[in-house]
Specification:
three-stranded mixed sheet, 19 helices, globular, about 65% helix, about 0% strand, mainly alpha, two-stranded antiparallel ribbon
Length: about 425
């Protein structure tokens, strides 16, 4: 995808992100593709249908990334965010993933599900969106009147020293083979993809569920499409340039190439190879509004937020499922606010959400993405267990519900069970 000017290339980049996100919004709403729902089905009903749909999305994205990267048709090594970075932020992945898993359970869905609910008329999710946006924005941007972010104030001093500096990038192939990792990445990607596909399709119930099949195939393809789009847009003007520039390269050489600053984005890192993720982009939405809708603040992620909401809205109208919904009571409001705060902190801390790390990041086979995914699932499942026991035993303490939940999850001995499963 070659363009003669930066403006044309950037426009195609944004429109591609927006239109593909609309497709994502339509399909996710139609099929009820939901990470929290998948975990809930497993924990409460031992139903793995929607979890398999999630795994199918991972398998499709991973297989596509593996093959296209091997054929040099895609770049997933220098990305935004840096999934494969040589610094393994293990504590941030685990703590952030845990906070996000708890938060999405309390907030009735992850970042993507929040956008889907907004498109379907859920006003509760608008409030959740607003809280996530403010927290996520100030996790990375200075608080008013200071040079400190929420991350630097609350987390940096104790969590960043727990990072591990690797000798290679942190994806499976690079950790096995070091610099000569092309073949190792191909083999590891194929092994992971095939193993997932075997597990997914051995279920006859899953094979017969058209919605789950459609969700997994489309969501995985959308993630792959985001990677392909962002990796293959270049500016190639033979009359003016001696070489071909990616969007990111052009930005870095702006002073030498461009005549003035007209059309220059506010940040260059948001022009790197990337695919869909939603917590940081929700924070970018707040920055966009705060910046008086300056076009320089538009990003791939920001357009994807708008696209998913629009896609969900379109489907809710077509299916006549659009419904205005508000908080049931003060407790419902407080629970959702806590969930939104935790998602804002956790999603930025872990470099992504159930989509951003759970599918987009995992498709690069980055170790940090796998750690985040595990932590999100654990945080969500544990929260659901605690909620279940506190519902059954209204006078039970949080500690009793927690210990019993950990016993159920086989993380504590049965002798520490405090509550009975009625």
């Amino acid at each position: 995808m070659s363009f003669e000017s930066f403006a044309e290339a950037l426009s195609f980049f944004f429109w591609g992100a927006f239109i593909t996100a609309i497709i994502l919004g339509v399909v996710v709403n139609k099929t009820n593709f939901c990470t929290m729902g998948a975990v809930s089905d497993m924990v409460n009903m031992q139903d793995y249908g929607r979890f398999r749909a999630w795994l199918l999305a991972i398998a499709v994205a991973t297989l596509g990334v593996t093959l296209l990267e091997y054929l040099s048709m895609m770049n997933v090594s220098s990305t935004f965010p840096p999934y494969r970075g040589s610094q393994l932020i293990i504590a941030e992945n685990l703590v952030g993933g845990l906070l996000f898993g708890i938060g999405m359970t309390l907030g009735s869905g992850c970042g993507n599900k929040t956008l889907i609910r907004i498109g379907g008329g859920n006003i509760k999710s608008v409030v959740v969106f607003a809280v996530i946006a403010v927290i996520a924005y100030y996790m990375l941007s200075p608080l008013p009147g200071t040079d400190q972010t929420l991350f630097s104030l609350i987390f940096f001093d104790w969590i960043r020293p727990l990072s591990i500096n690797l000798e290679s990038q942190q994806d499976i192939g690079a950790m096995i083979a070091g610099d000569d990792s092309a073949t190792a990445r191909l083999i590891s990607g194929l092994i992971v993809s095939v193993a997932l596909l075997v597990f997914i399709f051995k279920s006859a119930d899953f094979r017969s569920n058209k919605d789950n099949l459609l969700a997994g195939l489309v969501v995985g393809s959308v993630i792959l499409g985001g990677w392909y789009l962002s990796s293959n847009i270049v500016i190639d003007n033979e009359e003016e340039f001696d070489e071909i520039y990616t969007l990111s390269d052009y930005y870095q050489n702006w002073e030498m190439i461009a005549e003035d600053d007209e059309g220059k984005p506010a940040q260059g890192r948001t022009l790197s190879s990337q695919s869909y993720t939603f917590i940081n982009p929700i924070g970018q939405t707040y920055g966009y509004i705060k910046g008086s809708f300056d076009s320089a603040l538009l990003t791939f992620g920001l357009l994807s937020v708008f696209g998913v909401i629009l896609g969900s809205f379109i489907w809710s109208l077509l299916s006549r499922s659009f419904r205005i919904e508000w908080f049931h009571d003060k407790k419902d409001f407080a629970t959702h606010m806590i969930g939104a705060v935790l998602m804002g902190f956790g999603g930025v801390l872990a470099l992504g959400c159930t989509i951003g790390q759970g599918i987009t990041g995992v498709s690069t086979l980055a170790l940090g993405s796998f750690l985040t995914l595990i932590a999100i699932i654990f945080g969500s499942a544990l929260t659901m267990k605690i909620q279940y026991y506190r519902m059954l035993h209204e006078d039970a303490s949080f500690v009793a519900a927690l210990s019993t939940s950990l016993v159920d999850m086989k993380l504590l001995p049965s002798s520490m069970r405090k509550l009975e499963n009625l």
